[in-house]
Design goal:
Layout lengths: L1 H11 L6 E10 L9 E5 L10 H12 L5 E5 L10 H8 L8 E4 L2 H6 L1 H10 L3 E2 L3 E7 L2 E7 L10 H5 L8 E4 L16 E4 L28 E5 L2 E5 L17 E10 L1
Parallel strand pairs: 1-12, 2-3, 3-4, 4-5, 7-8, 8-9, 9-11
Antiparallel strand pairs: 2-12, 6-7, 10-11
């Protein structure tokens, strides 16, 4: 009975029991006008046969209610089939924030069709940072936003992504893969925003995520991590992959508030 109840919960309830997390991130030399700057991150949406467009629309509605200064999307919008790309992009279109909606691709976007995914997102006014960067400006104060394509597909061009960035201005990096925290290329980045892990998707008491025994991808599984002055936030994402279940890892809409580190 208990096993059946747990299985039903993991399949029918928790995958749709969305959680809006709130995290303060303290950044050294954060410009004054970016104090309390709010970023809402969506990741690993995985629109597919097992996660319908109604759930993507629900996620968008909940995310928009957080009223951030900036939306970031960190990859894996669909799973397997190209026919899910356009409906997913269309469902994401209502996202709106003063500093825009910015995105990068993930590994599953390469499995499906990276070019089609990029065009669909851009057609719906979502800016894709394909190994490039932009500068957010508030009066004389600036914050740099860079994005890389998925490095596991050899699609990352670090030189292009960072060319022209100022060392004196904090940089936020969008990277689907959290493993880049260990790369020397990110040592001057203030904050990395990632997904990919789904937080393990299943976490058991006393064990954690069983998937960590089969993959190194869960070294940085969810939450906030540090390496020197570089910080990494890994969202558990909102979708599922493989088994259509979540247990002990609610789907996450992450809200990050930037604070000046004194």
């Amino acid at each position: 009975m208990a096993v059946a109840a747990t299985s039903a919960y993991a399949r029918l309830i928790e995958p749709y029991h969305y959680w809006i997390s709130e995290t303060d991130v303290f950044i050294r030399d954060l410009p004054e006008r970016f104090e309390n700057f709010r970023i809402t991150q969506l990741t690993d949406i995985h629109h597919s046969r097992i996660l319908g467009i109604d759930q993507v629309q629900r996620v968008v509605t909940l995310a928009q209610q957080t009223r951030p200064d900036l939306f970031v999307l960190t990859g894996d919008y669909t799973t397997t089939y190209r026919r899910f790309i356009e409906p997913c992009a269309e469902a994401l279109a209502p996202l709106n924030a003063p500093e825009g909606v910015w995105a990068v691709l993930g590994n599953h976007d390469h499995y499906t069709d990276p070019e089609l995914t990029t065009r669909a997102l851009q057609r719906h006014r979502i800016s894709v940072l394909d190994n490039t960067h932009t500068t957010l400006q508030r009066g004389p104060d600036a914050l740099q936003l860079s994005g890389i394509d998925d490095w596991t597909w050899n699609a990352t061009d670090w030189t292009r992504a960072f060319r022209g960035l100022k060392q004196s201005t904090p940089t936020i990096l969008l990277s689907h893969q959290p493993a880049v925290l260990d790369f020397e290329q990110t040592e001057n980045v203030a904050l990395i925003l990632s997904g990919h892990t789904h937080g393990g998707q299943i976490r058991l008491p006393g064990v954690g995520a069983p998937a960590r025994f089969a993959t190194k991808d869960l070294k940085y599984d969810r939450g906030l991590f540090h390496r020197g002055e570089t910080q990494l936030y890994v969202s558990s994402g909102t979708g599922v992959i493989g088994l259509p279940v979540r247990l002990g890892v609610r789907p996450e809409i992450a809200v990050l508030r930037l604070k000046r580190k004194i």
